[in-house]
Design goal:
The complex is a heterodimer.
Chain A: H1 2-12, H2 18-21, H3 27-33, H4 38-67, H5 73-85, H6 88-99, H7 103-127, H8 131-140, H9 144-175, H10 187-192, H11 198-226
Helix pairs in contact in A: 4-7, 4-9, 5-7, 6-7, 7-9, 8-9, 9-11
Chain B: E1 10-17, E2 27-34, E3 39-43, H1 50-57, E4 65-70, E5 73-74, H2 80-85, E6 87-91, H3 102-106, H4 108-112, H5 117-130, H6 135-138, H7 148-160, E7 166-170, H8 178-195, E8 198-203, H9 206-212, E9 215-220, E10 224-229, H10 231-236, H11 241-247, H12 251-255, E11 271-272, H13 278-287, E12 294-296, E13 302-306, E14 320-322, E15 328-329, H14 334-343, E16 348-352, E17 358-363, H15 364-371
Parallel strand pairs in B: 3-8, 3-9, 6-7, 7-8, 11-12, 15-16
Antiparallel strand pairs in B: 1-2, 1-4, 4-5, 9-10, 12-13, 13-14, 16-17
The chains are: A mainly alpha, B alpha/beta.
Chain lengths: 235, 381
Amino acid sequence: MILELAQVQIHGRSGGGSCVQNDGFCPDWITSNLDRYVDPFLQQVFLVVVSVAVGFLIAGALALLAHRRRWLVGPIIGVTGVLYTIPSLAAFFLLQPITGRGKLTATIALVGYTLLIIFRNVTTGLRGVPEEAKDAGRGLGFTDNQLLWRVEVPLALPEIMAGLRIASTTTVGLATLAFFAGAGGLGERFVGSQIVFKSNVVVAGGLCVLLAIALDLVILGAQRVLTPWTRARSA
Amino acid sequence: MTAATPAATLEFRRATKRYSGQSRPAVEELSLTVPAGEICVLVGPSGCGKTTAMRMVNRMTDITEGDIRLDGASVRERSPAELRREIGYVIQQIGLFPHLTIGENVATVPRLLGWDKDRIRGRVDQLLALVSLDPADIRDRYPAQLSGGQRQRVGVARALAADPPLMLMDEPFGAIDPINRERLQNEFLRLQAEIRKTVVFVTHDIDEAIKMGDKIAIMKEGGKLAQYAPPAELLMHPGDPFVEDFVGADRALKRLALQRVRDIDLWTAPLVRTGEPVAEVRAKLEEADVQIPLLVDAEGRPVGWLSERGLAGERVREELRSRPDPRIEMDDVLRDALADLIQAETRYAPVVDARGRAAGILSIEVIGHALNVPQEEVPAS
């Protein structure tokens, strides 16, 4: 959706050059201009990784807080839900008077979008822990804290990791707009430079997709390492 | 198995559990003592408070009034987590941790107690072997890779890990199919004969209660104790109509599973040997309950029932009318012995001791008589 939005704007302003002039798809231009994408790409990676990590810490802490205080779940979902529905562009501009232009503003906004997703998944994961495993754990002498960290959190991991995957993929998309907050990123390549044409969209868009896939694979890999039991089936 | 920790005596003292908002208590003034090393079965219909009563012992449910004492010390004065590490806990759903291997599951309590790695590893293997599982094969598998029966055994091994003086078992075999349940029950009884723990065993199945219990506490609606007695006494003298109804109309038959042949008065057999004067045999038969002489060999082992022709001369000759089958053993329960008699279409059969020597005659009349013995004569099961 965001890519489409960017594309519409690109069509509005084509740049110079022969193939380039025709707003075409130009492999030659791409190979000679790849270096232009390195910095925006790294900025994009930074934005996504930091935002998801911070979002995970905050949402995770909120979920643990609400785990033993069920009444907190409703209000937290309400607040993070409101954050989630604020249009991202609006959020970037709304924050600017307070935090100025730059990475901080972009990160704060992006973190806001991860909270609902991660909170919901951590909460669902913790709730899905089999009652009998918790009962046995208590009966064997785990304290509440030991039960949480040694039984409940590990068993909620598949759900937690699923939340991280959705959050990171979503954030890759949203972070293309972080350019409006002055935080750079691949979005700059879509809308910010003079070179706005199909080749650019293909490269910048392609990098976004690759980044999303790469992050997804990283989290998936971590999940496989952390949850070997989920692959253990009846022998 | 090193029985390091001796079993504990467990005492309920008017233990009561009330849930707020409910007029009737879940458990009302439960008082009973489980002697060290015995299995006490809490049995009753659903909603009778048997599980609540059990869970009060390790404070999974807190006591409202009264007290529960372990070797004289109140459980109310202990921190719940520490108390629970000293009490084995097995539940129907078993509750193995799906994310931990079997070895790690069994090691749960030793880890909480901070044992060192080598000691834990040794203990895990010892316990898995104790519950008839192959440690090398099963130690590194996950619960999802085990059958229901195997998981149940692991649950018992995990509960025994720190050698607790008391075990709480809430319908431990309830989710197992009948054939495997019987096997697991027998295995547990064999294990218990070895480890001699104090056990509180909850079930809704009276047959399981009779089989497993040294004593049975029958509970009824409202968390009241209806009767607390050894199985045989419960079957012979139900304390009230509720207990009578609960143990079932076939309670006389159930008693057959409790008494062993060695526990009852057998008929004396008219034992004869080849070459014995026939006149003496005739005298023996006058006093015997069975009118057919049982021929035995030099060691006293039954050879067969003697025919009339064997008594035709001056001395007994080996002329058999039939083989001495079935041979009943002293350790057989009456139910199995009766089944043998019926199977062989006979009214009586010789009973042999551990060395195979004839020790008496078991007959259907003897069994019938045993079922009618007044309470005082009921042997301890």
